[in-house]
Amino acid sequence: MESNKIILLVLFICAIFHNASAQYQADVLGDGFEQKQINMPDDYEGKVIITVIRKQNHHKKAVLYIHGFCDYFFQKELAAQYLANGFDFYAVDLRKYGRSIMKHQIPNNCKNISEYYADIDSAIALIKQEGHDSIQINAHSTGGLIALSYAQKNTQKNDFYKLVLNSPFVDMNQNFFNENIAIPIVAFLGKFFPNNIVPDGISTLYGESIYKGNKGEWDYNLKWKPLLAFDVNWGWLHAIHQAQKEIQHHYQIQQEILVCTSDHSTYEKVWSEKLRKGDAVLSVKDIQQICSKFKANIKFAIIPDGIHDLSLSEKSVRSLYFQHIFN
Q1: Which domains occur in the chain, in start order?
Q2: Angle, nearest 10°, between helix axes 234-249 and 142-153?
Q3: Cα–Cα distances in Å, from 153 out to 43, 138, 144, 240, 247?
Q4: What is the per-residue pLDDT across 275-308, written as a single tens digit (0 to 9) for each?
Q5: Distance from C-alpha of 69 to C-alpha of 116, rounded to nearest angstrom
Q6: Residue of 229, 280, 244 whose CA lies nearest to 109
Q7: Cβ pair 263, 303 in contact under 8 A
Q8: How many Cα atoms within 13 Å fall on the side-chain side of residue 239?
């Protein structure tokens, strides 16, 4: 028994040394972006890694970007804006997302939002280790939910001073029956049957509106961010539902918060130009209503004609989003 404990301790120390000494590699984005993979403790699917991406200009301030669901970091213009305004830029591809997906894993899978806390801890520790004493978090959609949950559960930590939330996923944007009956039942069952699949219900229209190969402006890896989102299971729904309930009942956040949304949502069933000028994923009214209850230093930025990921909106629209961040 003692020998096993010694072996585990040696392996843990070796893992820490490996992560600390691992060198950055050129990232797939090119243009000076670098990436470093960090080994995390194994979970219920086996080996786990996260990937930290950075672009530096030797600023003391830094931002950590956290992506949304069925997503990864590819928003180079967002990074350029932060660099131009005095921040070094970091992003994390969370476990089972983007660069961090491993062959044995279900993409984007999780059973509890708290699984991502260690990913954020590791990314922030790296940013601090690299000489940054002032850190902001910019988080999109599901990343916004994760960041809010992280901030609520880590009230004793003072690792970052501000949250910029880009269309945070604080509510399901479903009809009354689904939100109040169907989703709570399936989410409850997801604690016991996590691998059951939720029937398809996510439209490809939002993806078509942003992807360059369809009707959009942006080029990205469809293996990491497919037009038809990865299947979600009951365990994922359980994790999201629990996190949203906690967000909606425990509003204390110590960090300054900037909540950014479009000025309206759009509910198109077939392709329409309206998809270029509204949030086609979430209800902006629900976001504003829920976030207005936070007991925090909170401000709102309403971006006319913004889409779900405001940083991918049309040029004049995203420029307004960037202005709100740095004002």
Answers
A1: 2-326 (3.40.50.1820)
A2: 60
A3: 21, 18, 14, 15, 10
A4: 999 999 999 999 999 999 998 899 999 999 999 9
A5: 13
A6: 229
A7: yes
A8: 22
